[in-house]
Amino acid sequence: MYDTLIENIGQLILPAEGPLKGDAMKQLDVKENMALAFEDGKVAWIGTNEEAQKLKASERVDAMEKTVTPGLVDPHTHLVFGGSRENELALKQAGVPYLEILQQGGGILSTVEATRAESETDLYEKAKQTLEQIASHGVTTLEAKSGYGLERESELKQLRVVKRLNEESLLDLVSTFLGPHAIPPEYKGKEEAFLDEMIRLLPEISEEGLAEFTDIFCETGVFTIEQSRRFMKASQELGFQTKIHADEIDPLGGTELAVSMAAASADHLVAASDEGIDSLADGDTVAVLLPGTTFYLGKDHYANARKMIDSGAAVALATDFNPGSCVTYNLQMIMSLAALKMRMTPEEIWNSVTVNAAHAIGRGDVAGCLCVGRKADVVLWDVPNYKYIPYHYAANHAKAVWKSGRKVWERRGARVFSVPQPGQGC
Ligand code: NIG
Ligand code: FE
């Protein structure tokens, strides 16, 4: 007797174990007329719909010939922050560049001010609501960064919120310390001293189990390649895995640095050089691409996903959800942008938000694939096939989402037709 049996699945999407590099990203196992059962939070059985008719389960779900996939993995979010930045939209419309807004003390620094001012409880409550929205869009595992504190107490406050969300929610959150995200006003002109300050926090973060990864914003006017190398080295010496916001705006060589340091991921890569792109094929660093950010910043030039995949890199996709450069938690929308703006195929896109995304955050052995014995992180999509999601953009196609076999979200029908209103009788 299984706990749950999803039967009558039109398409069951089974990404292979990864990380998938280059041509391997073009393969996607798509099985038709299937069924899937969970027990004790794990996938317990996968077979044909015909075989499923003999099975017993406490709950039977009719997928109505729609599509079932692993829970999505979002490997790059700035989940926890105070305030919002809708006032910057006008600046962006006036053509003020992202880095200039930052230099003027706005952008990331305005979120830093708001985050420092908010209590841990308020940050938790806000992030909790965001997390529910994220889950409703089909994501069951995600990464969450700090980086809006830029001083000890506020950075730890953000990391404690992530830890608590991981403990108290059903979702899996992977925590990243992004202390070197910007230079706070009190350290203007003293970048090295600020970096030292962030490096001094690493032992405490490690001892308290507040983060598994570290990250740094390597960019003109923020942190240099040399500073990034120093921070990554210090992180690795303490047992952290590393990530880097690399080559987002200027081609500083962050991609090459990430590969040479065996970073888990290099993220953004819009301006990565040909050498940087080529280096990805030889290393184990996953290229995490964030087309939602390019879109939101109003740029025409997207990361060269085609060249990366065609030359052998492992590519993943993420939202980069944050209050300034990408204000969406809809990973399905990112899948559409990957198709429309980066010419990724549907198969490459699905591998990028499942298996490769899981590898980018050190969860390749527990998330991103569906096989017997794995956590039952499953999405039932209200779509006829897997190609439909990148095609029909900006909607939420998730019909039901299970995390470790427990339903964390289900779409309730709209009440647009035929609902009697109070006092209308009959
Ligand atoms: O990944 N590029 C740096 N950090 C974030 C943006 C954060 C913000 O603008 O608040 C990013 O895009
Ligand atoms: Fe980011």
Name its key features.
Urease, subunit C, domain 1; 426 residues; alpha/beta; single chain; 35% helix; binds N-(iminomethyl)-L-glutamic acid; 8-stranded parallel beta sheet; 8-stranded mixed beta sheet; HutI
Corresponding CATH superfamily of the largest domain = Metal-dependent hydrolases
User: What global shape is seen?
Assistant: globular
Number of H/I helices: 16
By DSSP, the count of extended strands is 16
**Sheet/helix structural class:** alpha/beta
Q: Taking Cα atoms only, what radius of gyration do you get, to the nearest Å?
A: 22 Å
Sheet having the most strands: 8 strands, mixed
Q: What is the third-level CATH name, the topology of the largest domain?
A: TIM Barrel
Q: List cofactors, ions and other ligands.
A: N-(iminomethyl)-L-glutamic acid, fe (iii) ion
Q: Which CATH class of the largest domain applies here?
A: Alpha Beta
Uncertain segments: none
- Fraction in beta strands: 15-25%
The oligomeric state is single chain
Give the name of the CATH architecture of the largest domain.
Alpha-Beta Barrel
Terminal CA distance: 44 Å
Keywords: Cytoplasm, Histidine metabolism, Hydrolase, Iron, Metal-binding, Zinc
Function: Catalyzes the hydrolytic cleavage of the carbon-nitrogen bond in imidazolone-5-propanoate to yield N-formimidoyl-L-glutamate. It is the third step in the universal histidine degradation pathway.
Binding site for 4-imidazolone-5-propanoate: 85, 148, 181, 248, 325
Cofactor: Zn(2+); Fe(3+)
